[in-house]
Specification:
By secondary structure, the protein is of the alpha+beta class. The protein has a domain at 24-101. It has 2 helices and 4 strands; from the N terminus they run αββαββ. The protein has helices spanning 2-19, 40-55; strands at 27-30, 33-37, 60-66, 73-79. Strands 1-2-4-3 form a 4-stranded antiparallel sheet, covered by helices on one side. The protein starts with a helix and ends in a 35-residue tail after the last strand.
Length: 114
């Protein structure tokens, strides 16, 4: 009875731990700033992600660049004050919603001649 109970508890714990998705860190950087891998969903959440990253050092985030291609990054700086930054790059706005862009390529058309 005890063995069966212990075995069932261990098997349930193993099943739950194996089914949990292991997420990777979205933002990488240090106390001066960092990067966020670009995706449509990450661009919407970029101000929150950057704020959470910079809050670890008691600083404020400023998004400095957004390159809207998969494989590129959203860059941000961590500043001491959000009101005065003499040498900081200007803030770049991000999208507030995930917009699906359908790109239909109509040209160049290829003609096959035999």
């Amino acid at each position: 009875m005890r063995v069966t109970l212990a075995l069932s508890i261990v098997s349930v714990a193993f099943a739950l731990s194996a089914s949990v998705a292991h997420a990777q860190a979205v933002a990488r950087g240090n106390d001066t700033g960092g990067i966020i891998s670009w995706s449509c969903e990450n661009e919407v959440a970029a101000p929150v992600i950057a704020a959470a990253h910079c809050a670890g050092w008691g600083k404020y985030p400023r998004i400095t660049s957004v390159r809207r291609q998969y494989g590129d990054y959203i860059a941000f700086n961590c500043l001491w004050t959000p009101y005065k930054a003499r040498w900081a790059l200007p803030a770049v706005p991000t999208r507030s919603a995930c917009i699906a862009v359908a790109r239909v390529r109509l040209s160049p058309r290829v003609r096959v001649r035999y």
